[in-house]
Design brief:
Elements: H1 17-25, H2 29-42, H3 46-56
Length: 62
């Protein structure tokens, strides 16, 4: 069975992107959030990537 990446409805602070990635990779959501913030601070592209992911990744329907 193929597991698709979906935005989380349980582990969300803004749009559920980090929660969905964490659930998909089976890691702690805090780790993904820290990495995403670090990417945003270092490269500045993290915010743009988050917005794109918010639009592209569908929300989980459970």
């Amino acid at each position: 069975m193929e597991k698709r990446l979906k935005r989380s409805t349980q582990q969300r602070m803004l749009a559920g992107v980090c929660g969905g990635v964490a659930e998909h990779l089976r890691v702690d959501v805090s780790l993904i959030r820290l990495l995403w913030v670090g990417l945003s601070l270092i490269e500045g592209a993290g915010v743009l990537l988050y917005i794109i992911a918010w639009i592209v990744i569908p929300e989980r329907k459970d």
